[in-house]
Amino acid sequence: MSPIGTLEVGVVGCGIAGQAAATFLADAGHRVSIFERFVEPGPSGAGLLLQPTGLAVLRRLGLGDQVERSGARIDGLLGLNHLKHVVLDLAYADLREAAYGLGIHRGALFGLLHERLQRSAARLVTGAEIVEVEHDGRRATMVDKAGGRHGPFDLVVVADGAHSRLRERLMPRATAPLYPWGCIWATVPDAGKVAIAPAMLQQRLRGTTTMMGLLPVGQDLVTLFWSLPAAALEPGQPIDVEAWRTNALSLWPEAAALIEHAAGAGNFARATYRQVTLPHWNEGPVLLIGDAAHGTSPQLGQGANLGLLDAHVLSRALAASDDVAAALALFVRRRDSSVRFYRQASHLLTPFFQSDLSLLALVRDALMGPACMAPGLRTMMTTTLAGLRRGWFSTAELDAEGRYPLED
Ligand SMILES: Cc1cc2nc3c(=O)[nH]c(=O)nc-3n(C[C@H](O)[C@H](O)[C@H](O)COP(=O)(O)OP(=O)(O)OC[C@H]3O[C@@H](n4cnc5c(N)ncnc54)[C@H](O)[C@@H]3O)c2cc1C
User: Fold this and answer.
1) Could you tell me the mean pLDDT of each successive run of 10 residues in the chain, 408 residues long?
2) Which of 291, 299, 300, 384 for mutating ligand 1's site (highest number of atoms within 8 Å of CB)?
3) Residue 295 alpha carbon, nearest atom of ligand 1
4) Domain range 8-177+274-385, CATH architecture
5) DSSP secondary structure of 20-77
6) pTM for the full model?
């Protein structure tokens, strides 16, 4: 046990960041309660790409082998425009020969984290939507929708996702505008290995208004993403599957089998994103982590990885500190510049891939392919993809085995 002693910790949100944080903190001997609004916690959202950073955290939770078995190794990112000109072509092996990412079905990742949480001493409270967190600067109490009070806690970790309601209650100066674009997605079988280059995250682009992505997620499944304006994703707005099918086939004829399968099933899910900026990470003993603190568009494939790193860094900061305030200050010092970089980079880059600014596509198609081949820029782009950036001018390095060395 750290000099800080045993803390009473409350965690809001049983998603990726919340479960990882609750598990680390319970393993460290703190008394942890995690609150989830749904009666049956479960995954929401598409397959995702784990970077070396997120994989390192999952290994630290003892989930490395299971995650590897459930997912699909990804060697890099390949984006072509509709004329098949290269827009993005990045390989993890440029950083270390053994480096890779891992595509994984969100359900599989959720299942592994959830099973690990249940093996920890953390107490899971479901069907509890937290609507308020009150604090006096040292201790905090949560209030649920039914008026139930929970606590007091020495530390409350708010991990209620990009669309967090608690964020605006706790930090009225936080901003979280909805991106004007989002996506639909579906996970389809890839029995015939039609994902073309199976170990790659691939994108096909036409201008800034048409984008399709394919991510192998293991178990012979591929997640297919299709960009759409947020207005078309509002609940109740029908998705014209036949028009989508025609569009997708003309953009990416080689992916016909996957497109036909997705169109036949017709059960697309919808995702919208927020660009979250906080004035600060914590209000007294209440800390925001994960998408609640730094949600962005998923263009750089970092959100889950950042949330996993938040959870690990928080547990290490508590282990190294004498009190909660000092631990949170240490957490902020360790996380702030990297998270700020990813927030800014996502914000700058996303309009080149998803926006109404068609001129940006001309710039993108002319410059990004050559930039991927220019030595300094290629390293910058690959370290960004791998989750290694600590800021605009600073980066972490992978070890000789291609693994991210977690800070202790
Ligand atoms: C289409 C798409 C593709 C993506 N691809 C990638 C990728 O390739 N790589 C990557 O790293 N990231 C990716 N992301 C981002 C990633 O999904 C998120 O960053 C990650 O899920 C955030 O985890 P979280 O735990 O912070 O929040 P969430 O996963 O949103 O979990 C929040 C939890 O809090 C619960 N909750 C909410 N409000 C309350 C409340 N008031 N009380 C109690 N419980 C509450 C919710 O029910 C939920 O269980 C993608 C996102 C999208 C939309």
Assistant:
1) 86 98 98 94 79 98 97 96 96 97 95 97 97 96 98 98 96 96 93 67 97 94 96 93 97 94 92 96 98 96 97 98 97 98 96 96 95 94 98 96 94
2) 291
3) 19
4) 3-Layer(bba) Sandwich (3.50)
5) HHHHHHHHTT-EEEEE-SSSS----S--EEEPHHHHHHHHHTT-HHHHHHHSEEE-EE
6) 0.97
